[in-house]
Protein backbone atom coordinates (compact mmCIF):
# COMPACT_ATOMS: atom_id res chain seq x y z
CA UNK A 1 0.00 0.00 0.00
CA UNK A 2 1.12 3.60 -0.60
CA UNK A 3 0.78 4.49 3.11
CA UNK A 4 3.19 1.69 4.06
CA UNK A 5 5.64 2.84 1.40
CA UNK A 6 5.51 6.38 2.79
CA UNK A 7 6.18 5.16 6.32
CA UNK A 8 9.04 2.94 5.29
CA UNK A 9 10.77 5.35 2.91
CA UNK A 10 14.41 5.88 3.90
CA UNK A 11 15.21 9.57 3.51
CA UNK A 12 18.96 9.11 3.10
CA UNK A 13 19.22 12.48 1.31
CA UNK A 14 19.09 14.08 4.75
CA UNK A 15 22.44 12.54 5.66
CA UNK A 16 24.13 14.95 3.25
CA UNK A 17 23.24 17.84 5.56
CA UNK A 18 24.21 18.81 9.05
CA UNK A 19 21.05 19.44 11.07
CA UNK A 20 19.31 21.74 11.20
CA UNK A 21 19.04 22.34 7.45
CA UNK A 22 18.82 26.09 6.83
CA UNK A 23 17.19 27.32 3.61
CA UNK A 24 17.22 31.05 2.94
CA UNK A 25 16.88 33.65 0.23
CA UNK A 26 14.31 36.19 -0.96
CA UNK A 27 10.59 35.67 -1.24
CA UNK A 28 10.95 36.41 -4.93
CA UNK A 29 13.76 36.86 -7.43
CA UNK A 30 14.00 40.44 -8.68
CA UNK A 31 17.28 40.47 -10.61
CA UNK A 32 20.45 38.44 -10.98
CA UNK A 33 22.34 41.10 -9.04
CA UNK A 34 19.84 40.89 -6.17
CA UNK A 35 20.16 37.10 -5.90
CA UNK A 36 23.96 37.20 -6.00
CA UNK A 37 24.14 39.96 -3.39
CA UNK A 38 21.89 38.06 -0.98
CA UNK A 39 23.57 34.69 -1.54
CA UNK A 40 27.05 36.11 -1.01
CA UNK A 41 25.97 37.75 2.25
CA UNK A 42 24.45 34.59 3.69
CA UNK A 43 26.63 32.73 6.19
CA UNK A 44 27.49 29.47 4.42
CA UNK A 45 28.35 27.78 7.70
CA UNK A 46 24.62 27.84 8.40
CA UNK A 47 22.83 28.26 5.06
CA UNK A 48 23.36 25.39 2.62
CA UNK A 49 20.35 25.95 0.35
CA UNK A 50 19.43 29.17 -1.43
CA UNK A 51 15.75 29.74 -2.22
CA UNK A 52 13.93 32.27 -4.40
CA UNK A 53 10.41 32.45 -5.76
CA UNK A 54 10.37 32.53 -9.56
CA UNK A 55 6.62 32.25 -10.05
CA UNK A 56 4.51 33.96 -7.38
CA UNK A 57 0.85 33.00 -7.00
CA UNK A 58 -1.16 36.07 -6.02
CA UNK A 59 -4.67 36.19 -4.56
CA UNK A 60 -5.74 38.88 -7.05
CA UNK A 61 -4.51 39.54 -10.59
CA UNK A 62 -2.43 42.60 -11.38
CA UNK A 63 0.19 42.17 -8.68
CA UNK A 64 3.78 41.04 -9.09
CA UNK A 65 3.63 37.38 -10.08
CA UNK A 66 7.33 36.65 -10.39
CA UNK A 67 9.97 37.18 -13.06
CA UNK A 68 9.36 33.79 -14.68
CA UNK A 69 11.84 31.45 -16.31
CA UNK A 70 14.66 34.00 -16.56
CA UNK A 71 14.93 33.76 -12.77
CA UNK A 72 16.01 30.11 -13.06
CA UNK A 73 19.06 31.25 -14.99
CA UNK A 74 19.85 33.67 -12.15
CA UNK A 75 19.56 30.82 -9.65
CA UNK A 76 22.00 28.81 -11.73
CA UNK A 77 24.45 31.71 -11.46
CA UNK A 78 24.09 31.66 -7.67
CA UNK A 79 24.94 27.96 -7.65
CA UNK A 80 27.98 28.52 -9.89
CA UNK A 81 29.40 31.36 -7.81
CA UNK A 82 28.59 30.17 -4.27
CA UNK A 83 28.35 26.37 -4.50
CA UNK A 84 25.03 26.47 -2.65
CA UNK A 85 22.16 24.19 -3.62
CA UNK A 86 19.22 26.09 -5.14
CA UNK A 87 15.48 25.75 -4.59
CA UNK A 88 12.23 27.18 -5.90
CA UNK A 89 8.48 26.61 -5.89
CA UNK A 90 6.64 24.89 -8.74
CA UNK A 91 2.89 25.06 -9.30
CA UNK A 92 2.33 23.30 -12.63
CA UNK A 93 3.98 21.02 -15.16
CA UNK A 94 5.52 23.92 -17.12
CA UNK A 95 7.27 25.11 -13.97
CA UNK A 96 8.55 21.58 -13.37
CA UNK A 97 9.91 21.17 -16.90
CA UNK A 98 11.68 24.54 -16.78
CA UNK A 99 13.15 23.89 -13.32
CA UNK A 100 14.48 20.49 -14.34
CA UNK A 101 15.97 21.98 -17.50
CA UNK A 102 17.92 24.46 -15.36
CA UNK A 103 18.94 21.72 -12.91
CA UNK A 104 17.29 23.22 -9.83
CA UNK A 105 18.25 20.98 -6.90
CA UNK A 106 15.15 21.24 -4.73
CA UNK A 107 11.56 21.94 -5.74
CA UNK A 108 8.73 22.62 -3.36
CA UNK A 109 4.98 22.48 -3.86
CA UNK A 110 3.31 25.52 -2.29
CA UNK A 111 0.36 25.64 0.08
CA UNK A 112 -2.02 26.87 -2.62
CA UNK A 113 -1.10 23.88 -4.78
CA UNK A 114 -1.12 21.27 -2.01
CA UNK A 115 -4.76 22.08 -1.35
CA UNK A 116 -5.69 20.83 -4.86
CA UNK A 117 -5.16 17.06 -5.44
CA UNK A 118 -5.49 17.50 -9.22
CA UNK A 119 -2.62 20.00 -9.24
CA UNK A 120 -0.45 17.79 -7.03
CA UNK A 121 -1.16 14.78 -9.24
CA UNK A 122 -0.08 16.64 -12.39
CA UNK A 123 3.09 17.87 -10.71
CA UNK A 124 3.84 14.38 -9.38
CA UNK A 125 3.43 12.82 -12.82
CA UNK A 126 5.71 15.42 -14.41
CA UNK A 127 8.35 14.58 -11.77
CA UNK A 128 8.05 10.81 -12.21
CA UNK A 129 11.15 8.97 -10.91
CA UNK A 130 13.07 12.20 -10.40
CA UNK A 131 16.17 12.18 -8.22
CA UNK A 132 15.50 15.77 -7.14
CA UNK A 133 14.45 16.57 -3.58
CA UNK A 134 10.76 17.46 -3.48
CA UNK A 135 9.28 19.30 -0.49
CA UNK A 136 5.57 19.78 0.15
CA UNK A 137 4.20 22.74 2.09
CA UNK A 138 1.17 22.10 4.24
CA UNK A 139 -2.14 23.01 2.58
CA UNK A 140 -3.66 26.40 3.38
CA UNK A 141 -6.46 24.69 5.31
CA UNK A 142 -5.66 22.67 8.45
CA UNK A 143 -6.20 19.33 6.71
CA UNK A 144 -3.79 16.60 7.81
CA UNK A 145 -4.94 14.00 5.27
CA UNK A 146 -4.58 16.44 2.36
CA UNK A 147 -0.97 17.03 3.35
CA UNK A 148 -0.21 13.32 3.62
CA UNK A 149 -2.12 12.64 0.39
CA UNK A 150 0.18 14.98 -1.53
CA UNK A 151 3.19 12.97 -0.38
CA UNK A 152 1.52 9.71 -1.32
CA UNK A 153 0.96 11.01 -4.84
CA UNK A 154 4.67 11.77 -5.14
CA UNK A 155 5.74 8.39 -3.79
CA UNK A 156 3.33 6.64 -6.17
CA UNK A 157 5.31 8.23 -9.03
CA UNK A 158 8.59 6.76 -7.83
CA UNK A 159 9.81 9.94 -6.12
CA UNK A 160 11.95 8.91 -3.17
CA UNK A 161 13.57 12.10 -1.87
CA UNK A 162 10.77 13.96 -0.12
CA UNK A 163 10.12 16.21 2.85
CA UNK A 164 7.54 18.67 4.14
CA UNK A 165 7.48 22.35 5.04
CA UNK A 166 5.29 23.58 7.88
CA UNK A 167 4.30 27.16 6.97
CA UNK A 168 1.17 27.50 9.09
CA UNK A 169 -2.52 27.42 8.22
CA UNK A 170 -5.12 30.04 7.40
CA UNK A 171 -7.24 31.09 10.35
CA UNK A 172 -10.59 32.79 10.10
CA UNK A 173 -10.07 34.94 13.19
CA UNK A 174 -7.53 37.66 13.96
CA UNK A 175 -4.33 36.17 15.29
CA UNK A 176 -0.79 37.21 16.10
CA UNK A 177 0.26 35.06 13.15
CA UNK A 178 -0.20 35.51 9.44
CA UNK A 179 -0.75 31.75 9.21
CA UNK A 180 -1.60 30.02 12.47
CA UNK A 181 1.03 27.35 13.26
CA UNK A 182 -1.35 24.68 14.61
CA UNK A 183 1.67 22.92 16.10
CA UNK A 184 -0.54 19.95 16.94
CA UNK A 185 -1.02 19.11 13.24
CA UNK A 186 2.71 19.28 12.53
CA UNK A 187 3.47 17.21 15.63
CA UNK A 188 0.93 14.61 14.51
CA UNK A 189 2.81 14.45 11.23
CA UNK A 190 6.07 13.88 13.08
CA UNK A 191 4.47 11.16 15.19
CA UNK A 192 3.05 9.27 12.20
CA UNK A 193 5.88 9.89 9.73
CA UNK A 194 9.02 10.39 11.76
CA UNK A 195 11.10 9.25 8.80
CA UNK A 196 9.98 12.20 6.64
CA UNK A 197 12.02 15.40 7.24
CA UNK A 198 9.97 18.39 8.41
CA UNK A 199 11.16 21.97 7.92
CA UNK A 200 9.55 25.00 9.56
CA UNK A 201 8.87 28.23 7.65
CA UNK A 202 8.71 30.95 10.35
CA UNK A 203 8.51 33.71 7.72
CA UNK A 204 5.10 32.60 6.48
CA UNK A 205 3.84 31.65 9.92
CA UNK A 206 4.63 35.11 11.32
CA UNK A 207 4.07 37.31 8.29
CA UNK A 208 6.41 39.87 9.83
CA UNK A 209 9.96 39.98 11.16
CA UNK A 210 8.92 40.10 14.79
CA UNK A 211 8.35 36.59 16.01
CA UNK A 212 10.55 34.78 13.49
CA UNK A 213 13.21 34.02 16.11
CA UNK A 214 10.61 32.74 18.59
CA UNK A 215 8.91 30.47 16.06
CA UNK A 216 12.24 29.20 14.76
CA UNK A 217 13.37 28.33 18.27
CA UNK A 218 10.06 26.61 18.99
CA UNK A 219 10.42 24.47 15.87
CA UNK A 220 13.95 23.37 16.74
CA UNK A 221 12.90 22.64 20.32
CA UNK A 222 10.28 20.34 18.82
CA UNK A 223 13.10 18.64 16.89
CA UNK A 224 12.25 19.84 13.39
CA UNK A 225 14.87 18.99 10.79
CA UNK A 226 15.38 22.52 9.54
CA UNK A 227 14.17 26.05 8.86
CA UNK A 228 13.23 28.03 5.76
CA UNK A 229 13.60 31.75 6.49
CA UNK A 230 13.26 34.47 3.85
CA UNK A 231 16.11 36.96 3.57
CA UNK A 232 16.77 40.09 1.55
CA UNK A 233 19.55 42.68 1.67
CA UNK A 234 16.94 45.47 1.68
CA UNK A 235 13.74 43.86 2.99
CA UNK A 236 11.68 47.06 3.08
CA UNK A 237 12.19 47.44 -0.69
CA UNK A 238 11.36 43.81 -1.54
CA UNK A 239 8.85 43.32 -4.35
CA UNK A 240 6.80 40.82 -2.35
CA UNK A 241 6.23 40.02 1.34
CA UNK A 242 8.61 42.74 2.49
CA UNK A 243 7.44 42.65 6.12
CA UNK A 244 8.40 39.02 6.69
CA UNK A 245 11.93 39.14 5.27
CA UNK A 246 15.09 39.79 7.26
CA UNK A 247 18.64 40.65 6.27
CA UNK A 248 21.33 37.96 6.06
CA UNK A 249 22.96 39.61 9.08
CA UNK A 250 19.76 39.39 11.13
CA UNK A 251 19.40 35.76 10.09
CA UNK A 252 22.81 34.74 11.41
CA UNK A 253 22.14 36.54 14.71
CA UNK A 254 18.93 34.55 15.13
CA UNK A 255 20.64 31.26 14.27
CA UNK A 256 23.55 31.92 16.64
CA UNK A 257 21.17 32.80 19.45
CA UNK A 258 19.09 29.67 18.85
CA UNK A 259 22.24 27.56 18.68
CA UNK A 260 23.46 28.97 22.00
CA UNK A 261 20.13 28.53 23.78
CA UNK A 262 19.69 25.04 22.38
CA UNK A 263 22.94 23.96 23.99
CA UNK A 264 21.41 24.85 27.34
CA UNK A 265 17.99 23.33 26.67
CA UNK A 266 17.45 19.66 27.17
CA UNK A 267 15.17 17.76 24.84
CA UNK A 268 11.59 18.88 25.31
CA UNK A 269 9.62 16.48 27.44
CA UNK A 270 6.22 15.21 26.37
CA UNK A 271 4.56 17.30 29.05
CA UNK A 272 6.26 20.47 27.73
CA UNK A 273 5.05 19.70 24.20
CA UNK A 274 1.51 19.23 25.51
CA UNK A 275 1.78 22.52 27.39
CA UNK A 276 2.78 24.24 24.14
CA UNK A 277 -0.40 22.87 22.58
CA UNK A 278 -2.44 24.16 25.54
CA UNK A 279 -0.87 27.63 25.20
CA UNK A 280 -1.83 27.72 21.53
CA UNK A 281 -5.39 26.63 22.26
CA UNK A 282 -5.71 29.20 25.07
CA UNK A 283 -4.80 31.93 22.57
CA UNK A 284 -7.44 30.60 20.19
CA UNK A 285 -10.09 30.62 22.94
CA UNK A 286 -9.29 34.23 23.92
CA UNK A 287 -9.33 35.33 20.28
CA UNK A 288 -12.77 33.78 19.81
CA UNK A 289 -14.07 35.36 23.03
CA UNK A 290 -12.83 38.78 21.87
CA UNK A 291 -14.78 38.33 18.62
CA UNK A 292 -17.87 37.24 20.56
CA UNK A 293 -17.76 40.33 22.76
CA UNK A 294 -17.48 42.58 19.73
CA UNK A 295 -20.76 41.07 18.53
CA UNK A 296 -22.26 41.64 21.99
CA UNK A 297 -21.36 45.30 21.64
CA UNK A 298 -23.03 45.51 18.22
CA UNK A 299 -26.16 43.92 19.67
CA UNK A 300 -26.03 46.43 22.54
CA UNK A 301 -25.99 49.30 20.05
CA UNK A 302 -29.05 47.87 18.29
CA UNK A 303 -30.87 47.40 21.61
CA UNK A 304 -30.13 51.02 22.50
CA UNK A 305 -31.36 52.24 19.14
CA UNK A 306 -34.62 50.29 19.36
CA UNK A 307 -35.08 50.68 23.13
CA UNK A 308 -34.84 46.96 23.87
CA UNK A 309 -34.04 45.56 27.33
CA UNK A 310 -30.50 44.25 27.74
CA UNK A 311 -31.45 41.03 29.49
CA UNK A 312 -33.52 38.68 27.34
CA UNK A 313 -34.54 35.65 29.47
CA UNK A 314 -35.77 33.53 26.56
CA UNK A 315 -32.57 34.07 24.58
CA UNK A 316 -30.47 33.17 27.64
CA UNK A 317 -32.50 29.99 28.16
CA UNK A 318 -31.99 28.99 24.50
CA UNK A 319 -28.22 29.48 24.76
CA UNK A 320 -27.99 27.41 27.94
CA UNK A 321 -30.05 24.52 26.57
CA UNK A 322 -28.23 24.44 23.24
CA UNK A 323 -24.71 24.59 24.66
CA UNK A 324 -25.39 22.18 27.52
CA UNK A 325 -26.34 19.64 24.85
CA UNK A 326 -23.26 20.49 22.81
CA UNK A 327 -21.09 20.25 25.91
CA UNK A 328 -22.23 16.70 26.58
CA UNK A 329 -21.28 15.71 23.03
CA UNK A 330 -17.72 16.95 23.58
CA UNK A 331 -17.52 15.48 27.08
CA UNK A 332 -17.74 18.70 29.10
CA UNK A 333 -19.66 18.58 32.37
CA UNK A 334 -22.97 20.38 32.76
CA UNK A 335 -21.62 22.25 35.79
CA UNK A 336 -18.64 23.55 33.84
CA UNK A 337 -20.84 24.69 30.95
CA UNK A 338 -23.14 26.60 33.33
CA UNK A 339 -20.27 28.38 35.10
CA UNK A 340 -18.45 29.16 31.84
CA UNK A 341 -21.54 30.55 30.12
CA UNK A 342 -22.52 32.56 33.18
CA UNK A 343 -19.15 34.33 33.14
CA UNK A 344 -19.47 35.08 29.42
CA UNK A 345 -23.07 36.22 29.87
CA UNK A 346 -22.16 38.62 32.68
CA UNK A 347 -19.35 40.14 30.59
CA UNK A 348 -21.74 40.57 27.64
CA UNK A 349 -24.28 42.33 29.87
CA UNK A 350 -21.58 44.67 31.21
CA UNK A 351 -20.49 45.50 27.65
CA UNK A 352 -24.07 46.27 26.63
CA UNK A 353 -24.64 48.32 29.80
CA UNK A 354 -21.65 50.48 28.87
CA UNK A 355 -23.12 50.93 25.40
CA UNK A 356 -26.46 51.99 26.88
CA UNK A 357 -24.79 54.56 29.17
CA UNK A 358 -22.57 55.95 26.43
CA UNK A 359 -23.87 59.32 25.36
UniProtKB/TrEMBL annotation:
Source species of the chain: Candidatus Walczuchella monophlebidarum
Positions in coiled-coil regions: 264-291
EC numbers: 5.4.99.5
Xref: SUPFAM superfamilies: Aldolase, Chorismate mutase II
Cross-referenced Gene3D superfamilies: Aldolase class I, Chorismate mutase
Keywords on record: Coiled coil, Transferase
Top-rank lineage group of the source organism: Bacteria
GO MF term set: chorismate mutase activity; transferase activity
Biological processes annotated in GO: chorismate metabolic process
Keyword Transmembrane helix among UniProt keywords: no
Cited InterPro entries: Aldolase_TIM (IPR013785), Chorismate_II_sf (IPR036263), Class-I_DAHP_synthase (IPR052899), CM_dom_sf (IPR036979), CM_II_prokaryot (IPR002701), DAHP1/KDSA (IPR006218)
One Pfam assignment: CM_2
Alphabetical list of PROSITE patterns matching this protein: CHORISMATE_MUT_2
Name of the protein described by the UniProt record: chorismate mutase
Domain Chorismate mutase residue range list: 265-356
Amino acid sequence: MIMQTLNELDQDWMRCFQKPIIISGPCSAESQEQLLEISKNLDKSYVKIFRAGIWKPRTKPGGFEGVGEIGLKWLQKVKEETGMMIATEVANTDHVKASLAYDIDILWIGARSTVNPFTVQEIAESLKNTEKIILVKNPINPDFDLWVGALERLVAQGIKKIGVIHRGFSYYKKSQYRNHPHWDIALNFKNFYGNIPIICDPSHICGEREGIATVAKQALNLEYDGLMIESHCNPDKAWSDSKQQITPQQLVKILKKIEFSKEQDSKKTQIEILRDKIDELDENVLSLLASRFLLSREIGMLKKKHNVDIFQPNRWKQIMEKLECFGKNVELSSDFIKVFLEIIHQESIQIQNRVMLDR
